[in-house]
Amino acid sequence: MRFGVLGPLEVWTADGDPVGVAETKVRALLADLLVHRGRVVSADRLAEDLWGGRRPANPLASLQTKVSRLRRVLGDLVVSRPPGYVLEVEPEAVDLGRFEALVLRAGQADNARARAGLLTEALALWRGPAFADFADEEFTRAAIERAGEQRLTALEALAEARLELGEHPDLADLVAEHPLRERLRAAHIRALYRAGRQSEAIDSYEDLRTRLAEDLGLDPSPALLALHSAILTQDPALAAPAAPRTNLPVPVTELVGRAAAVTEVRDLLAVRRLVTLTGPGGVGKTRLAVEVATRLVGSFSGGVWIAELAGRARDRDDVVEAIATVLGVRDDATTSPLPLLDRLVESLRSKRILLVLDNCEHVVEPVASLVELLLRTAPGLRVLATSQESIGIAGETQWPVPSLEEASAATLFTARAAEAGARLDASSEREVAELCRRLDGIPLALELAATRVRVLGVRELLARLDDRFRLLASGHRGAPPRQQTLRAMIDWSWELLTEPERVVLRRLAVHAGGCTLEAAEAVCGTEILDQLTRLVERSLVVVQDGPRYRLLESVAAYCVERLADADELDLVRQRHLDYYTDLAERAEPHLRGAGQPTWVRRLNQENANLRAALDHGGNRRLCDALGWYWFLSGRISEAKRSLEAASPLGPRSRAWLAGMSVLSGPTDPLLYKDVSDPLGQWFVGFALYRSGGDLAAGERLVGLALKGFTESGDEWGVAAALSVRASQAMVRGDLDRVRSDGERAEAVFRELGDQWGLLQTVYPLAALAEITGDYALAERRNREGLRVAEDLELWSEAADRLTGLGRLALLSGDLRSAQELHERARKLAARQSYRAGEIHAEIGLALGARRLGDLDTAERHLRAVYEWNRHSAFEPGNALILAELGFVAELRGDADSALSLHTKGLAVARHLGDPRAVALAKEGLAGAHSLTGDHDYAARLLAEATAARTEAGAPLPPAERADVDRITARLRAAEHTD
């Protein structure tokens, strides 16, 4: 995260999205920790700063509450460390720290232009007075004064740097605000004099001299006296320095998102003589090179010069002529008999020059030979080149220019849209982010798109992006032809390729999200390594970790058109489908066993390609092979959509579709009536249990599957069926079966090395341990399950394990941890669209709220769960919910509602045949009858509940006796009263 204190307090994510810190005291706590960046602040100091003389009764407890709320926003950045707390962030994660670092670097810079650039960047971080919304607080006073002084010092240094560059900064307002600052006044006097306003410069000096004498009893410093004397004598040393020699264009727009790149490339040029900026067309190589070179004007006595090679240079003579022209080396035999190249070499031999060679990719070989010669003969020469591929000579440092990051891309697009007359508000943020992603963060593409926003709006622009070459067919008239349309930008690169390179590039376009070398060879041809290497070198193919090879989306769209032009589109798509069908079939048996994590990750990497294969004619074989992967990776909606679109489906795919439909919501039983193979029966039965569907139908299907797996000797299938049967037995309250089936399944899955399978045994066995009061074992199982779920990136399973841990925290009395764990589980499940997981977590939140005495919150959660269970026809879940609602009514003294709710709950429990649920309902009825005065009946109900629990082998653990103890106490009190 990043933090802003140079203005009102702000917090942003790494991508630049704002992070809300709403509560005033929590914001004050964050401000206090930021005042002491990286240093521990004692709890007493923080309490004093937050509350002063109006401390709460227990200030340390109140402080801990505020810290807890701040941690919900910032996470582990807020660290408890005796004797208090510290905010652990990198110095430059805070804008004040970034400001200080830039000012320090400016002080170390070896030329005025670099100093001016760094100081300008530093001062741009200020959004207002430091800690603006805490200016009246005592704990910020010293920090505000210190930061304000640093800002003034930076402004003075910037003024001096601009004077050194021959500029005339306007400092009148700043001097009026700080009339006694001698360094500032000296810069102001010098600027006035150089602007030809000598009398005003003298008046400014006299004003300072008078103020110093009257206010402080002091005389001007010797430096000011010397400056005054120099003005009176019109000393030539006061004249502005000569303008630096350069032909660099002056940019008309701000460079966005490249601050770090400018610094890195500039630093490279300090130690390397040849730096080449590489990258695809439109990524901003030229703009970055110009910005870096501009910062270095003044560092080279011979000047900073740019030679544009695109459109004019075709061979070495053209390159020599282009460089000679910008350096003023005349091609005139009357002035020298030497060839132009020799004259160029001689002109550079003793000079200190930075030469920018722009757009070298079409003449890379002549550029390479020439640059090698010039660097060898001119020791003071530095070369900054831009090219889609490296120059390829010894001593070269290649610096790939990346696409803009999401936040910077959005900033650039929004700024250029505004320049084109369009105003975008916050409602467009999501569409802008998607547009930037679709255009790969390429600045030129974003700028072309921005010209269309005023007419189309962002949403319509995004909707038309599939026809991007027609859409982005006009740009700024002053731009080079290759930069005026998106197609022209890619045409420029395409024309530089050989025919074999074009063949490979266009065939790569059928891949989505990149591909491996194996996949590329299967689709493009087996002998492609040389061509692929050249395409990577030319920045047309991006290499990712793996390695994987990817085309930018615009390049891919262009190449699909080229595929169609070559009449290869259908052929190449069929090769793509064949390869990924084979891959899915190779992966499928490994998804059950020790190879599961490896193959899930492999298919995750290829998910976009698998979707593309399905979209372009995917077959029954591919659907059959992908079903289990879709489930393991949490792609339920994608699976259902793909299976419904495929035709015709075989028995296996029909079973996958039935199970996925059940997991997606209530489903017509006819959909899974005819599932016949054991794997399909098991999957549908598992889905019915997991989604809270028809329990009896699920038990029947799992039983059939277990029989089929056993007959065929399928160990994995047997363990899978047993794990579901153990969970179903938990719903029925059959604890003996829970133990026997769960432990058998666990043993087989452990032997097979199937992590997903082990995860399925966690719930029934952890729940069994919880029921029997072994909370340590229950927690150990849940934590192991959470680790496995996170390792496999099975986030819905992780949500359930967090809920399990939350339940144990509740039972141990740690209500705050219970609330945090249940809330984490709820949010995680919501992100996965795992509604059943949200419901499980919401039950935990309801249980915690009731134990905290917040009956209204408890009831709100319980009613929501009850409605979901009713809508899903999940009757087993309502045994607990009706009992909890009944206890809420009883605690409010509402005997009639309590009786009604517990009576309904008892009917559900008896229908299920779960003795623990029956006991819970009877305990609730005892509480209701204790309110009506029917104490004997209430006591008898409690005794029956205890007997039922004992007979089931699950007596009530001490941590769950709160309701029974409360009702028992009420009965005893009534007995004494009687």
Automatic annotation (TrEMBL):
Domain (OmpR/PhoB-type) ranges: 1-89
UniProt keywords, alphabetically: DNA-binding
The keyword DNA-binding belongs to this UniProt entry's keyword annotation: yes
Top-rank lineage group of the source organism: Bacteria
Keyword DNA-binding: yes
DNA-binding region: 1-89
UniProt xrefs under SMART domains: BTAD, Trans_reg_C
Family to which this protein belongs: Belongs to the AfsR/DnrI/RedD regulatory family.
Protein name: BTAD domain-containing putative transcriptional regulator
Organism: Allokutzneria oryzae
